[in-house]
Amino acid sequence: MNLTIKFIVAISAIILLSYGFLLFQTSNLQNELVMEQARQQARILYKQILLTRQWVSDHQGLFLVKTAGVSENPYLHESTIRADDGTVFVKRNPAMVTRELSEYAAKSGFCWFRITSLKPVNPVNAPDEFERDAMERFKEGLSEYEAITDSPDGRVHRYIAPLMVQESCLACHAEHGYTIGDIRGALSISVPLAWADKVIHKNKNTIISYSVFSIFAVALALIFLFNKLVAGRINRLSRAMGNYPDEDYSVSDDKHLMGDEIGKLIIRFGDLCKRLDQAQEDLDKTMQQAFYSEKMASLGQLTAGIAHEINNPLGGLLNCVKTMHEEPENLELHKRYIPLLETGLRRIEHIMRQLLNFGREAPLTFSKVDIDGIIRECFELLEYRLKNITLTMDLNLTEKYCIDVEALRQIIVNTVLNAIQAMPGGGKLAVSTTKTQNRLIIKVKDTGTGIDPAIKNKIFDPFFTTKEVGEGTGLGLAVTYSLVQQMGGDIEVQCELGKGTAFTISLPANQMYTKPATEEISVKEKGQ
Description:
By secondary structure, the protein is of the alpha+beta class.
């Protein structure tokens, strides 16, 4: 999952949780508002019904003309009166007025209410479970009671408050044993909430719709802004990092964005690349200088030893020449000495040519050569150092392979000199070559003093040496390691203190041929 998707998912989750919390709080708030509205509505209705009942009671009832739809109240002693003209009037007490008004309210769907009592005169007014529980609580001093109940048509807010006996009530209820201030019964009011639930449900759907739209719109806006301000610029920077240092690693960025954190990072990346390029250039120069310095140091050691070896045949040659001068007419002497002179001079020429080849400075160029032959030449050059050492050579690279000749000479000479110096009293030196799959393996093993395990991981560090001052530069193995790495190989060391050391050099066998710089120049000159 990339950074853009993670960011969008995280932001969408935050928005979703925010809208979910908002929806929950809004739903609760709406429900509380509806409950409060229903409660106030029930209280107002309760007071209005009380006023109506009080008015009816104060006027000793309400008389209606008896018609087909107006029946008598069987629970009143004087339920009807007759006028002089014969018109019959039916009496309505407060309880019956309340019941008939409730029937009208129920038909309108507004609400419904009724009178109830624990000791009803009319069985119709017997309390249900909610009303009975409330009236029991009224005896304990509770002034009102409410609850939410379910019905087939939805939720219903039920409200009930006590009816107190007043003086005007005694006309009907004195015979029941009530006195002023007693709780005669209660007025139970029911307010349907289906309409409010529909509004709440509609509001929830509206909020959900807006939430989905908002999340979608915000996600699109964030994707665009995040890609433009963050992801796109980071991707360009990542590609530039992947291209460095072989390909174009420049990073383009909008000018108006260069002042932010990513813009500064892009600028710092460019500065870093420049410093790395300069550091690499300085390192290359340093390594070339170290390579050349170590080569000159090795060449100095070789020259110092070879000079002694050359002096002996030179002395013999000079004696031959002197004798020939003294006897210029002795042709038999000349005939015997001239081949000796030629052999001695060619030997000296061969040694000097090897020294010149070893001292030549040139960049790495790969060409097909006889690796075993190069190794033999190196040991010819080092022959004077092997007088007390038993040399065993097991060279098995019969084919030619692409390799840098000068680097190989430097590697072999440095490694062998290191082995010789580890055997000051003499010993055994074994050199072997072989090919394993696509690797060329060169192994140099000695029976010298070995390497202390405590310093084994430092032997390839530049200028690290255990030799006395003036006996070594500390660059031999460092240069060897660097040359092996440049040719795509690796070098391993196995050692045991007091028993010897083995250097195993592994080089790729599939290197491609590269033209030397001098050859390229000559080709260009011919083309011109």
